Model the fold of this input.
Amino acid sequence: MSPEIWGVLIATFVACVVEMVEATTIVMAMGFTRGWRSALAGTAAALGALAVVTATAGYALTVWLPEAALQLVIGTLLLIFGLQWLRKAILRSSGRKSVHDEDAIYRDEVEAARAAGTSSGAGLDMFGFMVSFKGVFLEGMEVVFIVLTFGLNAHDIPAAALAAAAAVLVVLIAALAARRPLSMINENLLKYGVALLLSSFGTFWAVEGTGIFRESRASIEWPGNDLMIPVLIVVWLVLSRVYVRSLRHPRPARQAVIAGEARKARST
Amino acid sequence: MRLLKSFGRFWYDFVIGDDWKIATAVVVALALTVLLVLTTSLSDHVLAVLGGSAIVLAFAVSLAIDVRGGNRS
Done:
């Protein structure tokens, strides 16, 4: 298999696991407090809506855009998306942003579900239905986006969809077995890994896509072609580790000031 | 109108996220790459390396500005 297909499988699977863990927390909170019928109906409706979005957007993008333009559009979006995740991963790893806590989110959701009044329609509890629908749809949109971008660029949407489906299955089995939020999964580390993959593939494709502005409309070729992708992963990893290290500790200048102030205080 | 506003808000949050500087950095870096593509006769390999470096540098600068602003949440 080519590095592109491996990238498709790994990035889609891991990103989907992360998003599905978050969605599962919301659905479980609704299921245990507002009833499983409404929570599962909301989940099914969201999955249906996501399938329609994937099919429509996938068809439109492949039919309307030439390859280099597709690479530029998809690469740019993927890059912005990946770098947002990378920024959060750097801030979390360096202690500048609170880490994602599924147990805390679950408690908040349960509290909100208990405080909400009753509103029913079509035999369903509308609060449980809507919160589950929104949670699964919003988290799922990120997965759809990753499936489409990776799948279209590797000309293999089925592989991306298969990886996403495998991730949904794994999370569902884990949730059924645990019967509680899947806080044992190190989501922050997984997100960091996905961020590196999205940023690297995004950089690769976005730069390739700038070739659309040439007369020939041909994509720009990287030295070594696909072999540049692992190199880009290393570049983003090194940059992020440098940032984590420098943000984790106070700056030397500030440390010197603090030490100076302490010496002054001792001598007086 | 409210629906349109929420629709726009959803896509803004989805694509741009909570730090607009990153999206700006990516667009600026790619615009510079396009400029090189249009105005120079550099080889593909050089253009790709310069474009990739511009993206990495732009992100590094945007994050530096972000943390200088005292990001802590």
About this structure: Helices of chain B lie at 2-15, 20-39, 44-68. The mean pLDDT of chain B is 88.
